[in-house]
Design a protein that fits this description.
Length: about 170
């Protein structure tokens, strides 16, 4: 397997992989992502050198973004709010690789990268109904922060998100 920063030529395959993930999530009533997000953010992520991919024989099997800010960061009670942290975002695993431990593997990679970039914590937000992801984060040693972030959209839709963190 190869782990690296994403490049622009990865975009078509990334979008195909994530569209399959979104279809699978919708079937399971996890209607969190749509035809716009997260796919329309990938090009910007690549431009900022914050999108990482995991490949198996040139096939993308997982991807995530690491950012140094998050709009919900002040909405929850982190263990050490002033500590340097990176935020894991847009984590996805190719549905053809579900149940093979890729989620745990890629979380460890995100933790390693965060530490190498000088972060004391890796943090993330997860929508309250995304129970499979919540189980993965808890199993991987992430601790739930106090409080909830309410992400509000222009159409009145609101996502309730929990914050999770782990020391790097």
């Amino acid at each position: 397997m190869e782990f690296r920063l994403a490049v622009l030529t990865d975009l078509p395959q990334l979008k195909t992989v994530y569209k399959s993930i979104i279809q699978d999530m919708n079937k399971r009533k996890l209607e969190i992502w749509d035809e716009i997000y997260p796919c329309d953010v990938f090009e910007e992520d690549i431009g900022k050198n914050q999108l990482y991919v995991l490949l198996d024989n040139d096939k993308i099997i997982s991807a995530f973004a690491l950012t140094d800010t998050n709009t919900g960061a002040s909405s929850v009670e982190w263990e050490n709010p002033s500590s340097r942290a990176f935020y894991l975002d847009r984590l996805g695993v190719n549905i053809k690789y579900s149940g093979k431990g890729i989620g745990s593997y890629i979380l460890n990679k995100a933790k390693e990268v965060s530490k190498s970039l000088g972060a004391e914590y890796l943090r993330l937000f997860v929508v309250d109904i995304n129970e499979p992801a919540i189980r993965l984060y808890a199993k991987s040693g992430f601790k739930k922060a106090g409080g909830t972030y309410e992400e509000k959209f222009d159409d009145g839709f609101v996502l309730h998100e929990f914050g999770y963190e782990i020391r790097t």
